[in-house]
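Notebook entry, structure prediction.
Reason for the run: the old model in the group folder had no record of what sequence produced it. Starting over properly, with the input documented here first.
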Amino acid sequence: MRLRQRVLVFFATLLAVTVVLAQEQRPTGVLRLRVRVKADDASPLRGLARKRFFLIPGTLEQNRALIDAIERQPLITRDCYYTKLGASAALISWLKENDCESVYCRSVEKDFVSGPKAIPEFASAFAASQKEFGSDDTARQWLTTNLTADLRDGFYRDRQRTIQTLLKQAPSAAVYSIMTDRNGTAYFTDLAVGSYVLSSLIPTELGQTLATWNCEVQVKPSDLATEKPYLVSNRKEKNVKCVAVEKPMPACATN
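New structure, fully documented this time:
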């Protein structure tokens, strides 16, 4: 009896190991995004840096509730958000220059805390940090601690809440997410065969328009164990697979 039990345990273990190895060896695909955009017709194409894209299992039709929610969402622009907070034009321009969603996306250089280029919010926070830390370098590096939470990263947090709300509309919880690098390139890996929706979920500000991407992507058996290039843009150029829907930038509320 003991021998029989040992034999059964051995074969059960062998079967489990075989299943695991088969799953590990299952070929998967890689989708390489290359996102290139134009702010307007006169501008050159450029890589869209530091923007998050999502790959959602299912077809566009299967994700219809999510697509409808994306199209209906009320979204405040960066300029409108900071204008409503009473931020200075200098701070808004500083954020816009590098397409920042928070003050953490770039370093605050000396020129922005004193002198003719000084940004009022940074100058005030820097003065408070000097009293707290003493050293000018330390005060500049930690001046964000003396900004209000909304000025620091309120716009970013607002967008993250919107993203999480939208993802609840997705029929599958297994959503892939990546961020483009400084050249506008990103990789979705370990993709199984099937249909997906490539989406930005929330619009990207491009000049005077808001661009949103929602495109169906097919990962075929021939794509497995390979890197599948996928060109994304807001212009219908040669080889572009996913073109954004653009809408005019809304005016800020006056109240």
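Summary: Helices lie at 2-24, 64-72, 78-85, 89-97, 120-133, 136-141, 149-167.
The old model has been moved to the deprecated folder.
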